[in-house]
Automatic annotation (TrEMBL):
It is an enzyme of class 2 (transferase). GO terms for molecular function: 4-alpha-glucanotransferase activity. It catalyses: Transfers a segment of a (1->4)-alpha-D-glucan to a new position in an acceptor, which may be glucose or a (1->4)-alpha-D-glucan. SUPFAM superfamilies: (Trans)glycosidases. Belongs to the disproportionating enzyme family. Keywords: Carbohydrate metabolism, Glycosyltransferase, Transferase. This is 4-alpha-glucanotransferase.
């Protein structure tokens, strides 16, 4: 064959294989223009998915293998279904006329027979009982995940509804706060927010009437490398950040005042305006090692042993990873210390968690591994205590945790779940108005092919880890339920492509787990949203997020009544400017100083546009009667924070979440995307101790306005849905 024809055929084969594998070969950019993914980028993504296509022969082999998997006669390890709906089986399974048995979680069972006519759909009778059941048909055994039609909702939390098939008959107009957990302060905290401080804030907020307290991600990080502290780039989403443990919960309060070097360092760090993560981590872990030594000396408790047993192999894997990451840099011939922070650079014998070398390491160093088991035990105890305190203080929801979109590809979860997480692809975002070259977040993503093949095991365990000790979960970049922008190793972010995910299955599993844990679900649906996506979220009772800065029709800000009732409402997010920062152009100051302005726009362009936006926001605030009089000057101290909170509080959203930065009127935002080290991302501490946060006069005034706005929104909703009162025969006519 002519080499040119061979290349042409290969490119066509690559396009066909990519489409069959769920990769979008054409996508629409921020301007709505179609863009074609290059064949080399497609080939790299396909290779990472285990579908090599460097030649026509490889393409044919990969297409045949993919087709065989999609048309195999055997049933997949798991099928998801909606309660009360027929359960469709793959038509090619060849099971027509077969008898089947369903074994329910409860221990009960039922029998049936599939249609004998091969021309009819192959389906089981509807199952009304939600849960994980077992289908036995022929010689096959399949897990059936039967989910409710919708997620556990805010109305369910308010009414105590336990029936997933029944809608709770109440319209919620609640409010809550959002906080960066690491930034909380209290006396004796050692320079870093912890679960004890979180519990204090939750109780205080509940006494003011808050229904929920949303927190930054608390996923497990890297104990041996605390310089990696971005909460959205965790080591594992299966476990918790041990640095949020209060050492006093393990050692007792007296241990923090005994004058040793570690406590002296903690006292120094406590008064710093920014978090010194390495120093704070070193001091805190030193105290926790003392607590672990005392535990070993006094004898391991039954509670700790039970925790380790229930954690199973996943917990053991994480503890082994943490111990190895600390131990390997001290060994000869293991490379530079910075390289051993990534398991993919470890000596070959340690890259497999099931290898003899890892087993031998665990047998040789049980106390080192035990320390990290101890840390997870205390972290879980701290989170559980905070959630219990929130609920006991009166919050119907309590803590809302944050599920990051991915985990570091060199971290614990990727090491222990290599079969499900794609190694050579990173989650990111395509070029858009704010990031003209696109984004590469360096995070690992699940392989859709592996999820199907494994019965979604890794996905379910992650959901359970996030739902376990909270009243709600916020899913970061929830758009990933339908598609993710994945970037090949070594390529620019613009050379990525969208990979399709099994959204129906994943939504059903979220709904099922949300009811099992009785936790609401919020999805961060900001960005380029596919057509119909928000409607699918609403149908599943998965709440989206409406942010003040984006609630516009061109330049005009939408009136509160025009906001969605199927989403929470907020003034801003951790990646966006605060109200005071936006009004005073503090965010423009930062972006201009760091060279992060949108391509083709000058500092003057940005400020001129902001002046128009300020005017538009003030008009919206005054039109809604949340503000009056002359527009304030563009300074942080003059920013209409109170009016903005009342404006957002007036929306029909079932839950309004106000970041503590806006409650305090602060101009600085927690994170400035796109910069590396120049802005103190994830290091800012709140200026007041937790006991003072909600008792400052300005904060009390804002709380009062927010509660008044929420009450007015509830009243307006009740009036709009109330039946008309008939006062005469004429009215009846």
């Amino acid at each position: 064959m002519n080499p040119a024809n061979e290349r042409a055929n290969t490119q066509e084969d690559i396009l066909q294989l990519a489409e069959a594998a769920g990769i979008a070969t054409i996508w629409s950019d921020a301007y709505g223009l179609p863009r074609q993914v290059s064949p080399p980028a497609l080939a790299a993504i396909l290779a990472a998915l285990g579908l090599p296509c460097d030649s026509a022969a490889q393409c044919r082999d990969s297409k045949a293998r993919l087709a065989a998997e999609q048309t195999a006669g055997n049933l997949p390890p798991m099928l998801t279904a909606q309660a009360g709906q027929p359960i469709r089986l793959p038509q090619q399974a060849g099971l027509h006329g077969r008898y089947y048995r369903i074994e329910f979680e409860s221990g009960a069972s039922s029998k049936g027979r599939l249609a004998a006519d091969s021309g009819l759909p192959l389906a089981l009778q509807p199952i009304d009982v939600c849960g994980y059941h077992r289908l036995l048909v022929g010689r096959q055994s399949v897990l059936l995940a039967v989910a409710p039609a919708r997620c556990f909702g805010i109305a369910d939390a308010l009414t105590g509804n336990t029936d997933a098939t029944r809608e709770a008959d109440v319209t919620a107009h609640l409010w809550g706060l959002a906080v960066q957990l690491y930034g909380l302060r209290r006396q004796g905290d050692g320079g870093l927010g912890d679960f004890t401080t979180l519990a204090k804030l939750a109780c205080d907020a509940a006494q003011h009437g808050a229904a929920a307290l949303a927190i930054s991600p608390i996923h497990a990080m890297f104990s041996a490398d605390p310089s990696r502290y971005s909460p959205y780039s965790p080591s594992s989403r299966l476990f918790l950040n041990a640095l949020h443990i209060d050492p006093a919960s393990a050692l007792g309060d007296h241990a923090l005042t005994d004058g040793n070097a570690a406590t002296t360092e903690l006292q120094r760090l406590e008064h710093m305006p920014l978090i010194d993560w390495p120093a704070a981590a070193g001091a805190r872990l030193s105290l926790l090692r003392q607590a672990y030594t005392r535990l070993l000396e006094s004898g391991v408790s039954h509670e700790f042993e039970t925790f380790c047993r229930q954690g199973g192999s996943a917990l053991q894997d994480h503890a082994r990873y943490e111990a190895l990451q600390e131990w390997l840099p001290r060994q000869a011939n293991c490379g530079a210390p910075e390289s051993t922070g990534d398991w993919r650079h470890w000596p070959l014998e340690y890259r497999d968690p099931r290898s003899p070398a890892v087993t031998a390491f665990a047998q040789r160093y049980p106390e080192q591994i035990g320390f990290h088991l101890f840390l997870q035990w205390h972290a879980a105890r701290g989170l559980i205590s905070a959630q219990r305190a929130a609920r006991a203080a009166g919050m119907p929801i309590g803590l809302i945790t944050d599920l990051a979109i991915g985990a570091d590809r060199g971290g614990s979860q990727a090491w222990s779940r290599q079969g499900e997480i794609i190694d050579a692809l990173a989650v990111g975002a395509p070029p858009d108005f704010l990031n003209t070259v696109g984004q590469n977040w360096g995070l690992g993503a699940y392989s859709p092919l592996a999820l199907h093949a494994s019965g979604f095991h890794a996905y379910i365990e992650m959901l359970r880890a996030c739902f376990a000790h909270a009243g709600g979960v916020r899913i970061d970049h929830v758009l990933g339920l339908e598609r993710l922008w994945l970037v090949p190793e070594g390529a620019s972010a613009a050379e990525g492509a969208y990979l399709r995910y099994p959204m129906v299955d994943m939504l059903r599993l979220i709904a099922l787990e949300s009811w099992r844990y009785r936790a609401i679900v919020i999805g961060e649906n900001l960005g380029t949203v596919p057509a119909g996506f928000d409607e699918r979220l609403a149908q599943a009772n998965l709440l989206g997020i409406c942010v003040l800065w984006f609630q516009r029709d061109q330049l005009q800000f939408l009136a509160p009544k025009a906001w969605s009732a199927a989403a929470i409402a907020t003034t801003t997010t951790h990646d966006l400017p605060t109200v005071a920062g936006w009004w005073s152009e503090n965010d423009i100051d930062w972006r201009a100083g760091l060279g992060l302005l949108e391509a083709g726009r000058s500092d003057a362009d940005e400020r001129a546009a902001r002046a128009q936006e300020r005017d538009a926001l003030w008009q919206a605030l005054t039109k809604s009667t949340c503000a009056s009089g002359a527009m304030p000057p563009p300074s942080a101290t003059a920013a209409p924070v109170d009016a903005a909170l009342a404006f957002v509080g007036s929306t029909p959203a079932p839950l309004v979440l106000i970041p503590m930065e806006d409650m305090l009127g602060l101009p600085e935002q927690p994170n400035l995307p796109g910069n590396i080290g120049s802005h103190p991302n994830w290091r800012r501490r709140l200026p007041l101790n937790v006991e003072q946060l909600l008792h400052e006069p300005a904060v009390l005034a804002r709380l009062a306005r927010l509660k008044q706005a929420r009450a007015a929104a509830a009243s307006a909703s009740a009036s709009a849905t109330a039946p008309a009162v008939l006062t005469s025969d004429k009215d009846r006519a």
